[in-house]
Automatic annotation (TrEMBL):
Name of the protein in its database record: GTPase Der
Family statement drawn from the similarity comment of this UniProt entry: Belongs to the TRAFAC class TrmE-Era-EngA-EngB-Septin-like GTPase superfamily. EngA (Der) GTPase family.
Binding-site residues, GTP 1: 9-16, 56-60, 119-122
UniProt function note: GTPase that plays an essential role in the late steps of ribosome biogenesis.
Domain EngA-type G, residue spans: 3-163
Subunit field text: Associates with the 50S ribosomal subunit.
Gene: der
Amino acid sequence: ARPVIAIVGRPNVGKSTIFNRVVGDRLAIVEDKPGVTRDRLYSPGEWNGRAFSIVDTGGIEIDGEDEIMKSVRMQAELAIEEADVIIFMCDAKSGVTHADDEVAQMLFRSHKPVVLAVNKVDNQGRMDEIYEFYGLGFGTPIAVSGSHGLGIGDMLDAAIEKL
Ligand code: GDP
Ligand code: MG
């Protein structure tokens, strides 16, 4: 089976935008298991000749601080179970939030390989916005921009290196 790369992070950081950049026009598969796992999209992907399966998590829109945190935690747990590498997605515009810290702790305790990606770095002038993300403890953050298609190759290089 293909190794699994899962994209994890709180809502609105740009996980689905990045997922779509990686899968291009391949058709993503909505997992049809009942319950929370339906909230995930799977697609084959390939980079530098390496085939993998990539997972987008947390697609269902939910309201309320508590509900959002519950869902983020559940998605992180599922990713830890099924993924070979986790792409932990954060948002340069919002900076590090409490929810990011919580996800970081879960991922840290799991000992799974993690690639830290900071999205919404839409131009080089924004590079200074990524430094605070070193504090999450996953090494050098990789700056990406889903909407501009920047840094995606670097992010996949880092993920494949950890497979
Ligand atoms: P998800 O909830 O983590 O899946 O996030 P989405 O992919 O749905 O994106 C959330 C919002 O962030 C949308 O309004 C996107 O258009 C926006 N967004 C995504 N990527 C970028 C980016 O690289 N730069 C900027 N400025 N906005 C982005
Ligand atoms: Mg999404």
